[in-house]
Task: inverse folding
């Protein structure tokens, strides 16, 4: 067994070889680095799979391992998107986008019995704390606005699309700046596989913060659409605070129009299995998307996030940062970041990064950044992934200021997690999440 | 008075081709209130000496000793050394995302003093020290060193020096990357710390220009992991005129 104690395991970067991707790293030469030099005119499906604590780390596996090879030659642009369930065959688990997911733990959300079945359980309740000026509606599935942004791109999302009865639509009218966050509580009480649909529309030049908190227990496949119109600004915080038994698959897709800004912060720590697929699709030039995420997996939890940023129009900017902490036997996290810069998307500036911190033995973090670049006329494109124990240089710095090692470790972990929490920008939500992370950390023997 | 004593120190680092000796028998005694400048060409081992005093795990002491008033420093962990009164102003301060300066400074001060500082005095001390070093007040709410420029990082190192009040400070190329104004501000900070706390200082530098602001009592020339020559401030003047050529030739001929 390879001793990975105190070593930053892996770093993969296409940008700035002189600047460590993680502060404090790089000088020691301890990382087993595989550098993929991304020519800006080439397609670079960089695939990095970073090892579990107990597995050995073979740098070559990151680029050309048996699993990684499957990624080559398949472009994210070719992925099927459709409302028809039959377009997504019954899953075998060998599909590229399901290979990390334990299908038997999906509790039937993937409709394993065939295309005639539906998700018929009681969907979690949806409560929206209304604000002045915004509209909250419960509509039937025939409402024409539904599906204007989201088209399912996997079987579970298609199952949800074909199963939901009613949807919740939240509309922020043009020009309205909503001062207080719009708080949406999704509360589950049932254990049968169910479907849910939400749509948030932010009109031209309007601004809003939306916080979606998932609580209780549920088995739910969810489609969430964010229609961010010209010049609008939307910050979404999606908190997965489920009880231990919950199973949650959520496709959260945004259409980001001309000069709009979209920020999505995904915080996952509850549930048995949570699989998020956040997507930001640029539909007009000059827009900006930030996708952030924090996941904290305990023993036995499977937390998966597969995000997609689709640069289909010129001069848009995207920034992706996901951070994970893992502790306990069979805690498993998956992060796959697909960024596609299409031929039309000249002037794109994008960066994506995933960092995982392994707090105990027996945990496994998979991390796969995929950057596809179809035009050379871009501002910048980079990706990075790092999975490891502590950043020893950070520990050293804090200890050199008299702070005992155990306290320094806690500061580093808190800091690691806080970086994402700080992105939310809503004081009480940040405060509550900080306290929850403290509780999570208390069970850790750092 | 306190004394930091380094005796016949040999230090190696692990490289791909096995261990490599960087320090080859360094002896140096620094008393509180004294300023020693350690000068030398790049690669002579100056920064290794600094990191070894602080206890960076990369550096292995193969023989020799470092003592602080007779206590064995090499037996202490990194944090114990800091609490014993040693401070290293780092050449490349580390960024710590998610940890605010305010939180960090208070946590470190509490650890070093063994008790939390009085809230009222502490905030005032931090504020006035930041003012004196011309650090923007908003830095208190920013994360430690994150996104700071090279010069800002150096100021923040000296801010800590002033607030933590160590017995001995090792300044590892604090002058590198600073413009003239920043160099003056930072030097004044070091001088204040020295006057107020009778601090002993090991000033590690490649260039003589910082010595216009911080006056050394002793100057040591470091070449190839050893002290090649020691003297008073006049040695620095000579280096300013002649550079390190004289010493490099000596090494080559040895």
Result:
């Amino acid at each position: 067994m390879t001793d990975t104690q105190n070593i930053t395991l892996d770093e993969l970067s296409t940008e700035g070889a002189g600047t460590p991707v993680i502060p404090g790293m790089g000088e020691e030469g301890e990382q087993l680095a595989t550098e993929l030099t991304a020519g800006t005119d080439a397609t670079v499906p960089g695939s990095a799979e970073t090892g579990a604590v107990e597995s050995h780390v073979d740098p070559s596996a990151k680029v050309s391992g048996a699993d990684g090879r499957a990624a080559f030659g398949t472009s994210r642009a070719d992925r099927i998107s459709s409302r028809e369930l039959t377009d997504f065959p019954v899953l075998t688990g060998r599909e590229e986008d399901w290979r990390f997911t334990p299908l038997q733990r999906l509790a039937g959300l993937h409709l394993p019995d065939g295309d005639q079945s539906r998700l018929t359980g009681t969907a979690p309740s949806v409560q929206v704390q209304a604000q002045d000026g915004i509209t909250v509606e419960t509509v039937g599935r025939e409402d024409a606005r539904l599906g204007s942004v989201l088209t399912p791109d996997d079987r579970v999302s298609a199952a949800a699309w074909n199963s939901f009865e009613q949807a919740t639509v939240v509309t922020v009218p043009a020009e309205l700046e909503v001062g207080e966050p719009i708080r949406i509580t999704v509360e589950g009480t049932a254990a049968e596989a169910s479907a849910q649909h939400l749509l948030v529309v932010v009109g031209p030049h309007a601004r809003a913060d939306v916080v979606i908190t998932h609580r209780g227990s549920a088995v739910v496949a969810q489609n969430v659409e964010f229609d961010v119109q010209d010049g609008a600004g939307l910050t979404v915080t999606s908190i997965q605070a489920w009880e231990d038994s919950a199973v949650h698959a959520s496709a959260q897709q945004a259409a980001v129009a001309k000069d709009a800004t979209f920020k999505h912060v995904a915080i996952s720590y509850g549930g048995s299995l949570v699989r998020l697929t956040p997507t930001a699709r640029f539909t007009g030039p000059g827009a900006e998307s930030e996708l952030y995420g924090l996941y904290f997996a305990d023993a036995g939890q499977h937390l998966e996030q597969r995000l997609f940023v689709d640069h289909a129009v010129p001069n848009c900017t995207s920034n992706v940062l996901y951070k994970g902490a893992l502790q306990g036997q069979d805690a498993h996290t998956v992060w796959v970041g697909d960024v596609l810069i299409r031929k039309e998307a000249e002037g794109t500036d994008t960066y994506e990064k995933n960092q995982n911190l392994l707090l105990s033995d027996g945990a496994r973090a998979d991390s796969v950044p995929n950057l596809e670049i179809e035009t050379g006329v871009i501002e910048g494109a980079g990706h990075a992934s790092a999975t490891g124990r502590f950043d020893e240089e950070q520990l050293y710095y804090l200890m050199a200021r008299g702070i005992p090692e155990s306290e320094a470790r806690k500061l580093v972990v808190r800091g690691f997690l806080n970086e994402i929490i700080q992105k939310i920008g809503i004081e009480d939500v940040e405060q509550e999440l900080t306290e929850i992370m403290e509780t999570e950390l208390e069970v850790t023997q750092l | 008075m306190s004394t930091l004593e380094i005796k016949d120190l040999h230090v190696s680092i692990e490289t791909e081709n096995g261990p490599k000796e960087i320090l080859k028998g360094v002896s140096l005694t620094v008393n509180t209130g004294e300023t020693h400048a350690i000068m030398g060409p790049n690669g002579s081992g100056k920064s290794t000496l600094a990191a070894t005093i602080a206890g960076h795990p990369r550096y292995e002491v193969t023989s020799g000793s470092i003592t602080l008033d007779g206590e064995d420093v090499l037996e202490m962990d990194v944090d114990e050394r800091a609490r014993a009164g040693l401070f290293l102003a780092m050449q490349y301060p580390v960024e710590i995302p998610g940890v605010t300066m305010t939180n960090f400074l208070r946590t470190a001060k509490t650890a070093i003093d063994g008790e939390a500082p009085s809230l009222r005095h502490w905030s005032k001390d931090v504020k006035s020290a930041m003012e004196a070093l011309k650090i923007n007040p908003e830095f208190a709410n920013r994360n430690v060193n994150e996104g700071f420029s090279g010069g800002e990082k150096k100021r923040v190192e000296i801010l800590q020096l002033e607030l933590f009040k160590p017995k001995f400070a090792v300044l590892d190329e604090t002058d590198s990357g600073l413009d003239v104004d920043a160099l003056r501000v930072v030097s004044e900070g070091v001088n204040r710390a020295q006057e107020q706390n009778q601090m002993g200082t090991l000033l590690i530098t490649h260039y003589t220009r910082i010595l216009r602001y911080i006056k050394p009592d002793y100057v040591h020339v470091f070449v190839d992991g050893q002290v090649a020559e020691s003297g008073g401030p006049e040695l620095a003047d000579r280096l300013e005129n002649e550079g390190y050529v004289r010493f490099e030739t000596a090494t080559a001929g040895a």
Chain B is about 35% helix and 30% strand.
